[in-house]
Design goal:
Largest sheet: none
Number of helices: 3
Order of helices and strands: HHH
Radius of gyration: 11 Å
Length: 55
């Protein structure tokens, strides 16, 4: 149940911010499939701050 809530929260955050729309959505779907939700939270937080993949 906890993981499901986390997914929902992240999904809402992604919809609100829609940073790089499809790429973030793809990452979210992948994380949901693999269960790596904590890692995704970190990744999203990183992206929301405007960081790039190259760092």
């Amino acid at each position: 149940m906890k993981a499901q809530k986390a997914r929902l929260k992240i999904a809402q955050t992604v919809k609100r911010n829609d940073v790089q729309g499809e790429r973030v959505a793809a990452a979210l779907n992948h994380a949901n499939k693999t269960g790596k939700i904590t890692n995704l939270k970190r990744l999203l937080a990183h992206k929301m701050r405007g960081a790039t993949d190259e760092e």
